[in-house]
Amino acid sequence: MASGAVRVVWSPEMLGYDFGPGHPMTSDRLDLTFRLAEQLGVLEGVSFIAPGVASDELLETVHEPAYVRAVREAAEHGTSDASRGLGTRDDPVFPHMHDAAARVVAGSVEAARAVWAGEASHAVNLSGGLHHAMPGAASGFCVYNDAAVAIRSMLDAGAERIAYVDIDAHHGDGVQAVFWDDPRVLTVSVHETGHVLFPGTGHARETGGPGGPGAAVNLALPSGTSDAGWLRAIDAVVPAAVREFAPQVLVTQHGCDSHVMDPLTHLRVSIDAQRLAASWLHDLAHEVSDGRWLALGGGGYAFIDVVPRAWTHVLGIAAHAPVDVAVAVPEPWRDVVRERYGRNGADRMGDGREPVLRPWSAGYDPADDVDRAIRATRLAAFPLLGLDPDLD
Fold it and tell me: Which parts of the chain are coiled coil (predicted)?
C-alpha cells in the first residue's frame, strides 16, 4: 500500500520553461496556478519536489543522443535545427532551453519514482505532460517528453504494467510513439480529431504495433464537443480499458485546452467537467493501482481564465483537499491579475455549469457524431484488450 503522502513538483526554477513573449506556452500558466493553489490552501501538507536538471543518460532512455546534443547546441548558440524541430514557430530556441526542459523531465521522474517506491500515494508535475516530443525531435511546444521518460523510469525500476491516460485536446502522439510496440504500457488518448487539430494523428485505427496490439487506444472527438459528449466519451472508453489492463501505476495528462475559452482548440468543455474528469481518474487510480497516481499538466493556453483554476482543481484532488466549483477566487489573486494584465480574472472556481453524464449503457445513437466516434474506438481497440465493444 502506498504512503498517504503527496508530492508536488514546484520551484521557481520551473518557470524557466518559457518560449518567450507572445508564445502560448508562457510560464505565467504555472505562476498563476501555484499562486491560486497556495491562496486556497490546497498545498498545505504536500511535500515539494524541487528538481535539478536531468542527466543526458536519463534523457537518452527515450531520446536519441544526437537529439540531446542538438538541443544543447541550440540552447548554447541560439541556432536552429529544423530537422530536429528546433527553432520553429512552435519550438523557438531560447537561452537555457536544454536545462529548462531537462528540469521538467527530472521533476516527472522523481515524482514517478516516489509513487512507484511507495513513498507517495500521488504525485503531480503540472510543468510536465510535454506529450508531443519525439525521440529525435521537438514538437508542439515540447522539447523533451517527460511523461515517456517517467514511464520508462518506472519500467526500469520493475513495473510491469503502466497505463497512461491523456485528456488534452491534442493527441498524445509522442508518448504513444515511444510505447507503440510495448505491451507493458497502455496509452489512452481522448482528444479533438486530428482531421482538424495538430498533430493530425490519434485516429481510432491506431491501436499499437505488432508487439503490443491494443497498446494504444484513441478516441478522436468532433470539434465543438461540449461537456456532455466529452464526459460520455471518457466514461465510455477509459475506465473499461484501464480496468482490463490492470496497471500497477496510473499516469494521467491533464492538458486543459479542451476548455471552450482555449484559443488553440475547438472543444467546448467547462472547468466543471474538467474537474469531474480529474476526480474520476483519481478514483480510478485508487481502484486499479492501489492509489499509485502520477498526474501531469500539458496544454492549456487561456492562461489567466482557465489554466490556474483547472490545475488548482487537479492539485486539490491529488492532495485530497478538493475545491468546490462554487468557491470564490481569492481577491489577492485577482489583484495580481489586474495589476499584471489590466483586467479581472474569473471570480469563481467553476464556470457555473452542472455537467451531467449520460453513460454509454444508456444506448448508442448512430446519428450523434460523438457516439459514432466512441463506437469507432470501441470497435477498433476493445477486442484487442479482450473486451466486448457492445457490452463492456
Answer: none
Element (H, E) at 118: none
pLDDT along the chain (392 residues), means of 10: 78 98 98 98 96 98 98 96 97 97 98 98 98 98 99 98 98 98 98 98 98 97 98 98 98 98 98 98 98 98 98 98 98 98 97 96 96 98 97 89
The answer to whether residues 170 and 257 touch, using CB atoms and an 8 Å cutoff, is yes
Task: Output the pTM of the full model.
Answer: 0.98
Q: What angle do CA 215, 364, 203 make, to 5 degrees?
A: 35
Cell of 218: 484513441
CA–CA separation, 285 vs 245, rounded Å? 12
Beta carbons within 10 angstroms of residue 205's beta carbon? 12
User: 104 burial class (0-12, 13-18, 19+ CB within 10 angstroms)?
Assistant: buried
Domain boundaries, the chain: 6-51+107-385
Q: 3-class SS at 75?
A: helix
The catalytic residues are 132
For domain 6-51+107-385, give the CATH number: 3.40.800.20
Peptide bond into 332 cis (omega under 30): no
Could you give phi then psi for residue 238, rounded to 5 degrees? -65, -55
